[in-house]
């Protein structure tokens, strides 16, 4: 079932492999783009990753990238590599639907900071990607643009809300994609589609020009093939932005330089509360095998108790509910029928939460973060968990518009990712195996605030000794 990467031609190259090959003159940006476009033409009719595909503009950009290299001009770290992005990052003059009926024709007048930084680094923008409506579900369902399908097994969900980003990177339609992560929406499609997804520390990356979902929990970040890809991508997009006053002024290190492969003495905690509740044995087995790979590299692993996680889960859900309801208040009054059933129900629920509980969730965030760090990171460098507790569910099993009884299975998808949004901690998901149906399984690693370099170093070390991230869906 796991086809060799070589069957995709140049499109099988990771983002950093492709950028470096272009810089060395081994391949052209135009040839790489055509390989990706051929994959899209052959397979996106079944996957449904794209909302808008800008073929002509991408070809013009690739030709310009090749002329720039031939002329000896300075090249950016992502020169000539094709990307596409979740349809919630605004580009002036281009429609940004946010996966919704309400914004089907919305044309912003500003360009997101992250897109500007990717442009400056030389990346080629292929278009916009399918996503959950207003980024508000963890499965990838979309009643307005059609559901996105898992390229490993089409009836199964992709994870959300960055569904097209995860599916497209896995299918080798492009080398990298922006997702967003408010409760796991980068890490979930990463684990479910078998790619790498990074949520940086809260405020590490500017959110200017990105559709908001939750003021307290939104994060911008990449879905890519490898930890090295994530490191280079983050170096490009991270850093303070005057247009986003919440963005951190913390210096941006060279994340890629930190990928030494040496994790000797790295201390990893495995919290026993929450993350393994109802976990499938195949997931636990893959997780334990992944820990074995890290231990063989010199890391130490210890099981710890972290009772603060119960409060983390409750408070995190409360924040996103209330803030999402506030953002959508006018549309909910004026255009309630333009929302899918599950989203309108979720938003209405946010209006019923008392204000004092919302304030309590905000006020407790700092103390709970300090407590969790003492429990799980005081003596340790990283926390390790499965990204998803169970085997990947089907689209039908998590379709709550069709059957509200699917609600518990729907919400369980994001159980292991949501805590790190409330805590604001950096977390990455990398592929660590497959279940008995050929669907991917993910390993989640999290660290202290602004410790992305350490998180990435461990993820990269794991990928040096495994090939899960190089396996390709059986699309043909």
Automatic annotation (TrEMBL):
InterPro entries: Amidase, Amidase_CS, Amidase_dom, AS_sf. Residues 32-456 form the Amidase domain. Transmembrane segments: none annotated. PANTHER family: AMIDASE AMID-RELATED (PTHR11895:SF176), TRANSAMIDASE (PTHR11895). It comes from Caldovatus sediminis. It holds the Pfam family Amidase. This is Amidase. One of its GO terms (molecular function) is catalytic activity.
């Amino acid at each position: 079932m796991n086809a060799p990467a070589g069957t995709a031609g140049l499109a099988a190259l990771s983002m950093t492999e492709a950028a470096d090959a272009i810089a060395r003159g081994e391949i052209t940006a135009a040839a790489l783009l055509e390989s990706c476009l051929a994959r899209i033409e052959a397979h996106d009719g079944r996957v449904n990753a794209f909302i808008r595909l800008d073929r002509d503009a991408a070809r013009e950009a690739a030709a310009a990238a090749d002329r720039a290299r031939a002329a000896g001009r300075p090249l950016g770290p992502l020169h000539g590599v094709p990307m596409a992005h979740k349809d919630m990052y605004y580009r002036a003059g281009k429609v940004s639907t946010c996966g919704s009926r309400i914004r089907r024709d919305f044309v912003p007048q500003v360009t997101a900071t992250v897109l500007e930084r990717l442009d400056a680094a030389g990346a080629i923008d292929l278009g916009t990607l399918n996503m959950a409506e207003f980024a508000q579900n963890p499965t990838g369902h979309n009643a307005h643009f059609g559901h996105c399908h898992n390229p490993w097994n089409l009836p199964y969900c992709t994870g959300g809300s960055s569904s097209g980003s995860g599916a497209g990177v896995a299918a080798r339609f492009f080398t990298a994609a922006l997702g967003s992560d408010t409760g796991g929406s980068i890490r979930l499609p990463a684990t479910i589609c078998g790619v790498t997804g990074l949520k940086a520390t809260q405020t590490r990356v500017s959110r200017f020009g990105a559709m908001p979902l939750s003021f307290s929990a939104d994060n911008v970040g990449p879905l890519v093939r490898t930890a090295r890809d994530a490191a280079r991508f983050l170096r490009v997009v991270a850093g303070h932005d005057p247009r986003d006053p919440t963005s951190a002024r913390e210096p941006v290190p060279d994340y890629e330089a930190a990928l030494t492969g040496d994790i000797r003495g790295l201390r990893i905690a495995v919290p026993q509360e929450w993350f393994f509740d109802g976990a499938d044995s195949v997931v636990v087995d893959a997780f334990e095998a992944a820990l074995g790979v890290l231990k063989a590299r010199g890391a130490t692993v210890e099981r710890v108790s972290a009772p603060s996680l119960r409060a983390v889960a409750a408070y995190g859900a409360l924040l996103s509910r209330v803030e999402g309801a506030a953002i959508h208040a006018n549309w909910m009054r004026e255009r309630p029928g333009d929302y899918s059933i599950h989203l309108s129900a979720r938003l209405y629920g946010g209006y019923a939460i008392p204000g004092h509980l919302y304030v309590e969730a905000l006020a407790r965030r700092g103390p709970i973060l300090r407590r969790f760090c003492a429990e799980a990171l005081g003596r340790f460098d990283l926390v390790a968990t499965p990204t998803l507790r169970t085997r990947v569910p089907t689209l039908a099993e998590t379709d709550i518009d069709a059957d509200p009884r699917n609600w518990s299975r729907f919400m369980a998808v994001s159980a292991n990712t949501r805590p790190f949004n409330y805590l604001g901690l950096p977390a990455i998901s990398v592929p660590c195996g497959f279940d008995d149906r050929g669907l991917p399984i993910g390993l989640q690693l999290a660290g202290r605030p602004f410790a992305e370099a350490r998180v990435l170093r461990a993820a990269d070390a794991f990928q040096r000794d495994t090939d899960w991230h190089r396996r390709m869906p059986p699309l043909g």
